[in-house]
Write a structure and sequence with these properties.
Helix content is about 35%, strand content about 20%. Helix 1 (about 25-40) crosses helix 3 and helix 5 packs antiparallel against helix 6. The protein contains eight helices and ten strands. The protein has three domains: about 25-90, no CATH class; about 100-215, OB fold (Dihydrolipoamide Acetyltransferase, E2P), CATH 2.40.50.140; about 220-295, no CATH class. It is globular and about 70 Å long. The protein is an alpha+beta fold.
């Protein structure tokens, strides 16, 4: 009998760059130029219409050169880069009735709007209670004139005499200003932080008696349900753990820092671990997915 000839297995070439176990990863090559476009656009001036034209022109060149692989891929990457820049620039465009287009009202203005996020209660450095909330502006009255407006407003109410909840429609009288940038190098840029959340106007109410609740429970029912879950979770944490352990756990898991003592907050800052506590208006882990869908 003739011996069976064993065939040696063929050597396989190593996977090419941009592949994982021989499987192409186009999402990586799409995401990188898109993210770079967003980052670069942050440092450019507002030129959305120029970006629209350039993106459309590069997309046209990509379609024309689709038979030339290298050239079409190059045009496609540039198009994705410009698309990221265009979307970022478009997000900063406001409508003519946006509240930022109205002058500051240092003498006071009456603003009507709906609470868009769960309010935050805290104490000032001098021990006064205050409430911070985000409003979807609807109506603005100043100089004896009434205007329909849009946009988000960050309102701070000192010495509130009542409780405010997500979905409440409020009428507030206070000082209407714009956030200021840092006065010294290295300071936190509060204005840029709010701008990234599309908040361009601040409202300061010195007395809670200048706030009237017009309607209640007018928000999205799914968001109200998710906020109810958060409150029940905080109640369980408070009943299970003693203070200040319960306050720390609620701040880390739920983003609820209103009961966290100022001394503990200072310790987090001094030890460089303040980043583990979510900021005041970041999405909370327990219901962020629901809020992203509905807001």
């Amino acid at each position: 009998m003739n011996p069976v000839r064993s065939k040696s297995p063929k050597a396989t070439a190593p996977p090419k760059a941009g592949t994982s176990n021989g499987v192409k990863r186009p999402l990586v090559w799409i995401s990188l130029p898109f993210i770079c476009g967003i980052l670069v656009s942050r440092f450019l001036g507002p030129y959305p219409f120029c970006l629209y034209f350039c993106t459309a022109f590069l997309l046209f060149l990509t379609l024309l050169s689709w038979r030339k692989k290298l050239l079409s891929h190059l045009f496609l990457l540039i198009t994705i880069f410009l698309l990221g820049a265009t979307l970022y620039q478009s997000s900063s465009i406001v409508s003519p009735d946006h509240i930022i287009n109205f002058p500051e009202a240092n003498e006071g203005a009456l603003l009507e709007g709906k609470v868009a996020k769960d309010p935050s209660i805290s104490l000032t450095s001098w021990g006064m209670k205050k409430v911070s909330l985000i409003l979807n502006a609807r109506m603005l009255t100043f100089d004896n004139k009434r205007y329909e407006v849009t946009g988000l407003v960050k309102a701070t109410i000192y010495n509130p005499g009542q409780r405010f909840n997500y979905g409440d429609e409020l009428a507030l009288f206070g000082k209407l200003t714009r956030p200021r940038g840092p006065s010294n190098p290295g300071q936190f840029d509060w204005s840029r932080y709010l701008t990234r959340q599309r908040i361009y106007v601040l409202l300061t109410v010195k007395d809670g008696r200048d706030v009237i609740i017009l309607k209640q429970n007018k928000g999205n029912p799914i968001v109200r349900w998710s906020l109810g879950i958060k409150k029940r979770a905080k109640s369980i944490i408070t009943k299970t753990l003693p203070k200040p352990q319960s306050d720390i756990l609620a701040a880390v898991l739920l983003g609820d820092r209103q009961d966290l003592p100022l001394e503990l907050t200072d310790l987090f800052i001094q030890t460089g671990t303040i980043h583990i506590l979510p900021t005041q208006y970041t999405k909370k882990p327990c219901y962020s997915a629901l809020r992203n869908i509905t807001l």
